[in-house]
Design brief:
heterodimer; A: 155 residues; mainly beta; 5-stranded antiparallel sheet; 4-stranded antiparallel sheet; B: 381 residues; alpha/beta; 9-stranded mixed sheet; two-stranded antiparallel sheet
Chain lengths: 155, 381
């Protein structure tokens, strides 16, 4: 399970650019950053060094904090550094990106594809030295914020 | 493309896949190569090059295997492509012979997963999703969850893949698990990544398999019953925004490109060995390979056509679900199965009259891709 954490440094992705920033103040909402190609307009998360389509430079944009759960699972056989069972899934954001995230949820039974999810912040694992590592997470949005999802029929 | 020579497989051997905690990777590889040499009768002096497919076998795996068999001193290439390592190594040998560089080559696939102890296979730590908690069973479990959501299938429907493949596996002395399983056992096994219990997943184990390929011109020097490579294709995954996870894009594309290149169609295939690392995988690969339309894989399975006596048996060896998945060995073991099946040597699990066999593996998980690699071969008697 994800524990809500306190202040800690933003995670650096491989190219050294911040891909997300921890919540400022009491909001509990992290800032999610993606790269948008100025040439083809496609958006990528986490930030690559250049646009994979065009090799052009990317501008950093801030993503919405709310999206739709595309799919999920609950992992019972946790790898090193993680404590099972924990839930993970993919959240689709309106900017056209799909984020992989740990899901912060008390009762796994509420999870279903189509659920509206909101970004939060929490400990996701411990590192090789046993120190906690924090990241963005997603949790189910409040009931009144759930978007009516049409049943997806087979294509 | 300039004219390529026809390539045949003239020898095959494998060890039973199992946990071999006390054996080194080199020993496992040696046993498979010795089987292959003895069964085929190909003299070592004729082998011009060797290829070794392994994902975790470490540096110079091929040389460590072949040194004590007196088979070094020739070009040896070690190929890594995650779970597709063995198949990709086979393709490299095929390319070299087809291009006329060598006449005869040996390919060995090997893996020793028991070196990791228990648990899931450790993935690349610098991969973004891995650092957030991704493991391979979870990736497939998420595909299954989405597929179940879109097409209304249940975990019990997916379990039918394991039941079918263990039935085949019970007829194959080379599988790790040789007992059939029931739906109750599958439901009751411990949970790995929801909705997958342990019995929706291929077991962890070790293994090795080897084949010898040669140009068509020299094949008859070794056997009158060689099998011919009539199709070979390899590709890598691409980034697609908000990709449809119910359709495995790398296999769809690899199969389409192979079919276009070779003129073969899914209707020409008599049997297939596909990458059933988890139950959902086989369902999705029926569709991706063109045996069933998208969303109808479970119907095909329930029809019995992919089982014993069906018109398109899939994984008559028992598949990864019965054999386990020693990564680099898997692709070569599939080719060994195709070799035996097309020669009528598959014993109790023989597909009657099989003339054309397809083998398929997909490699690994890295963020943003369906898989890293996909290799498909087609063989004909």
């Amino acid at each position: 399970m994800v524990n809500s954490g306190s202040q800690n440094k933003p995670e650096l992705n491989l190219s050294g650019a911040f891909t997300w920033k921890p919540p400022a103040g009491e909001s509990g909402s992290p800032t999610l950053l993606a790269g948008r190609c100025m040439y083809c307009n496609e958006t990528f998360f986490p930030l690559p060094q250049v646009c994979p389509r065009c090799l052009e430079a990317l501008e950093t944009i801030t993503l919405s904090n709310t999206g739709i759960l595309y799919t999920y699972t609950i992992v019972h056989v946790a790898p090193r550094g993680f404590t099972g069972p924990y839930a993970i899934g993919y959240v689709d954001l309106p900017e056209g990106v799909r984020l992989f995230a740990q899901l912060d949820v008390q009762d796994f039974a509420v999870l279903r594809p189509g659920l509206t999810m909101t970004a939060g912040w929490g400990q996701i694992r411990v590192d090789e030295q046993g120190q906690p590592v924090y990241s963005y997470t997603f949790h189910p949005a409040a009931a009144f914020e759930q978007v009516e999802q049409q049943e997806v029929s087979g294509s | 493309m300039t004219s390529l020579r026809a390539v045949h497989v003239v020898g095959a051997g494998m060890i039973r896949f199992a946990r071999y905690k006390e054996s080194s990777l080199a020993e496992l590889g040696q046993k498979a190569v010795l089987q292959c040499l003895r069964e085929s009768g190909v003299p070592r002096s004729r082998i011009a090059a060797a290829y070794c497919g392994t994902a975790t076998g470490g540096m110079l795996a091929g040389q460590r295997i072949l040194r004590d068999l007196g088979l070094t001193g020739i070009p040896i290439v070690n190929v890594e492509n995650a779970c597709s390592a063995g198949s990709a190594a086979f393709r490299e040998a095929w390319i070299a012979i087809a291009a006329g560089i060598y006449d005869v080559a040996l390919v060995v696939g090997v893996e020793k997963l028991t070196r990791f102890g228990g648990g899931t296979i450790p993935l690349e730590a610098e991969d973004f999703e891995v650092s957030q908690g991704m493991v391979m069973p979870a990736l497939y479990a998420m595909r299954a969850r989405r597929y179940m959501h879109e097409f209304g299938v249940t975990a019990d429907d997916l379990a039918l893949v394991m039941i079918k493949n263990r039935k085949f596996g019970s007829l194959n002395p080379f599988t790790q698990y040789q007992k059939e399983v029931s739906i109750e056992e599958i439901r009751g096994a411990r949970m790995i990544a929801d909705p997958f219990t342990l019995l929706h997943c291929c077991p962890t184990g070790d293994g090795a398999a080897a084949v010898i390929l040669c140009s068509e011109q020299v094949a008859s020097q070794f056997t009158t019953r060689s099998i011919r490579v009539i199709g070979s294709h390899l590709t890598s995954g691409v980034v697609i925004s908000q990709r449809d996870m119910t359709s495995p894009e790398i296999t769809v594309r690899c199969a389409r490109e192979l079919y276009e290149e070779s003129g073969i169609g899914p209707e020409d295939i008599d049997m297939a060995e596909v990458h059933d690392a988890f139950t959902i995988a086989e369902i999705m690969y029926y569709e991706a390979l063109g045996f069933a339309p998208h969303g109808e894989g479970v119907s095909l399975l329930k029809s019995g056509q992919t089982g014993i006596g069906g018109c398109i048996p899939v994984n008559p060896s028992g598949g990864l679900l019965s054999k386990g998945h020693p990564l680099g060995a898997t692709g070569i073991a599939q080719i060994v199965e195709a070799f035996w099946q097309l020669r009528g040597e598959a014993g109790a699990r023989q597909v009657p009259g099989a003339k054309v066999a397809l083998t398929h593996t997909t490699g690994g998980g890295i963020s943003g891709l369906d898989h890293g690699a996909c290799t498909i071969h087609v063989f004909a008697r």
